Amino acid sequence: MKKYTPHLFFISLVLTAASYLLISKGKPEIYPFYSWKLFSKPFGATKQDVVFKIYGVQNKDTLAITMKSASEVYDADIKFAIINRYGNNIANNTEKQENLKKLRLFADITAPGFDYYILVKETFNAQEIGKRNFSTTKTIITAF
């Protein structure tokens, strides 16, 4: 195994660079390096996870816009990343109006036909998923 380590490292480096170039051109990555949270948040590093979700409202009926399914334009991982990136920026008031504009455009493309959308921040402990005491705290960030 020791003699293969340099080769594996080089292959990983080349595939990571190729994935970066593909992502920058709007194509899916061939080596799932950037969508992993291996280095940014290893499992168990924190007990609190935050996920942002979008709900569409039409005729006073609220429907969760699923992030786990692909659309014609975005795959599920990209949808998840976009919602979380803009949601985090909006929640932290980082260029809020610009991020709201981008998130509205994204929502109109992926789930058209709603009167307006609601951005919700969900906080939970991923280590408790599947356990009886699992709970999620939902906070409405804004309607747009």
Could you describe the 3D structure shown?
This protein is α+β, with helices and mostly antiparallel strands and 144 residues long. The protein folds into 2 domains: 36 residues; 95 residues, no CATH class. Strands 2-1-3-4 form a 4-stranded antiparallel β-sheet. The protein is globular. The termini are far apart. The mean pLDDT is 81.
Question: What is the element layout, followed by pairings?
Answer:
Blueprint: H1 5-24, E1 49-58, E2 61-64, H2 76-91, H3 96-110, E3 116-124, E4 136-143
Antiparallel strand pairs: 1-2, 1-3, 3-4
Which descriptors apply to this entry?
4 strands, 35% helix, alpha+beta, 22% strand, globular, 144 residues, four-stranded antiparallel sheet
How many strand segments? Answer: 4
What gap, in angstroms, lies between the N and C termini?
54 Å
In terms of DSSP E residues, the strand content is 15-25%
User: Rg, please?
Assistant: 18 Å
Helix content: 25-40%
Are there runs of 5+ residues with pLDDT below 50, and where? none
Mean pLDDT: 81
Tell me the structural class: alpha+beta
Q: Which oligomerization state do the chains in this entry correspond to?
A: single chain
- Note the run of SSEs as H and E: HEEHHEE
Main beta sheet, described?
4 strands, antiparallel
* Domains, number: 2
How many distinct helices? 3
Instruction: Report the principal-axis shape.
Output: globular
